[in-house]
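Postdoc handover notes: sequence design on the structure in folder B. Input tokens:
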């Protein structure tokens, strides 16, 4: 007997028929002798529809009330799925994030899990009942307020529960058959990866691959929770995200040097023009940006002009964080004495990822040659031991992804399938 945590995304429970299909899969896992916990997202586009509804009422809804509103989507899914499973003769009981013991901090809209106390879930499993948990939500212990975890929070809920319950595996069901070497909507011949390390998956998620969210992979690595990414539309084996010992990896003759190509359209670039090139200036700039709540990704500082002693500093950040960062910088323009600010939201980031590249010379040259041959201009470059990222124009990003994917021979034998059209 194994303890399995399964997570189903919005496209997997998009309508009544989809919920019945998921219920059948859950019932089969239970009848096979497993203890089963299921985490569900809101049905289809429910979350977006709730956001639109709130904005029709007021252009600036209070974030606390938004969290209460948005958790309704997952509560609908969990109760309907519990009904469907019970209808198949398997006992099931649904729980909100609060009832399941998901404790968070008090940051509305993007709360972080600080503890998991799944006592009610454990009691339910001990009685032979399937536990259905609403993803994406928890409760702040100090204020007893409902909180949401941000986009993709159901993945994090699932892995956190798996860690708290010491589950054997956390299965993340999506509408693709696993983790691919690139987004199959852009590269139809992208190849499914059978096994990937936490470190590689962290880089893929951080660089735009949406099949798994960054925080969920972080949880998995921290608590050594094996994550199995699978499709809810087929019975195929997916991608296992886990630790692979170095010795075992070295013995795998066919292990690819490059894991995949990720891309991200959600970033923007801020350039601070005419910055005095004196000690402490950069520190002050990034203190101000940090206090605005922006998450900085890539940073480039030009060599200062000898005649003026001025330089330009560019950095990328989530596009949604741009307005706050710009406002914070404008407020200290007289103090820092920079000339002007430029904001560019038409950039795209491409990242080449693979643990094998750190011991393989020529990877960078091959990447840049592929982009050159495709006529792609590079604006910024960032590297780590297992990643090379470049910023280019957003309208050329798809061509860049396809060019790099082909250059590193990552194409599979047949076309990949996105069963519900979203890639999540």
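Designed sequence:
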């Amino acid at each position: 007997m194994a303890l399995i945590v399964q997570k189903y995304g919005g496209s997997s429970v998009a309508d009544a028929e989809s919920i019945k299909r998921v219920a059948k899969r859950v019932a089969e896992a239970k009848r096979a002798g497993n203890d089963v916990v299921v985490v569900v997202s809101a049905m289809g586009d429910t979350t977006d529809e709730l956001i639109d509804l709130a904005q029709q009422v007021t252009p600036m809804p209070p974030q606390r009330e938004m969290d209460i509103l948005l958790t309704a989507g997952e509560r609908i899914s969990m109760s309907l799925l519990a009904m469907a499973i019970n209808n198949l003769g398997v006992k099931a009981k649904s729980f909100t994030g609060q009832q399941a013991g998901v404790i968070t901090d008090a940051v509305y809209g993007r709360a972080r899990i600080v503890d998991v106390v799944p006592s009610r879930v454990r009691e339910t499993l001990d009685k032979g009942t399937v536990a259905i948990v609403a993803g994406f939500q928890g409760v702040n212990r100090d204020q007893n307020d409902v909180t949401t975890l941000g986009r993709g929070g159901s993945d994090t809920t699932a892995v956190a529960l798996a860690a708290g319950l010491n589950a054997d595996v956390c299965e993340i069901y999506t509408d693709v058959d696993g983790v691919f070497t690139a987004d199959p909507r852009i590269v139809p011949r992208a190849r499914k990866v059978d096994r990937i390390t936490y470190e590689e998956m962290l880089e893929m998620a951080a660089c735009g691959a949406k099949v798994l969210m960054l925080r969920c992979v972080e949880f998995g690595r921290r608590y050594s929770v094996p994550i199995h990414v699978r499709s809810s539309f087929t019975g195929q084996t997916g991608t296992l995200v886990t630790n692979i010992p170095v010795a075992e990896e070295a013995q795998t003759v066919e292990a690819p040097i490059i894991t995949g190509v990720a891309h991200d359209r959600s970033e923007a670039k801020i350039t601070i023009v005419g910055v005095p090139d004196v000690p402490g200036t950069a520190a002050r700039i990034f203190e101000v940006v940090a206090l605005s709540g922006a998450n900085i990704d890539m940073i480039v500082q030009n060599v200062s002009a000898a005649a003026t002693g001025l330089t330009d500093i560019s950095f990328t950040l989530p596009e949604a964080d741009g307005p706050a960062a710009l406002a914070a910088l404008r407020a200290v323009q007289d103090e820092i004495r920079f000339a002007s600010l430029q904001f560019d939201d038409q950039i795209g980031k491409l990242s080449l990822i693979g643990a094998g590249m750190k011991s393989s010379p020529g990877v960078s040259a091959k990447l840049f040659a592929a982009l050159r041959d495709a006529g792609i201009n590079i604006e910024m470059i960032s590297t780590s031991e297992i990643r090379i990222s470049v910023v280019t124009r957003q309208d050329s990003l798809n061509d860049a992804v396809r060019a790099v994917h082909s250059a590193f021979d990552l194409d599979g034998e047949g076309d990949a399938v996105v069963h519900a059209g979203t890639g999540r």
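Context for whoever picks this up: The chain is about 35% helix and 25% strand. Don't rerun without checking with the PI first.
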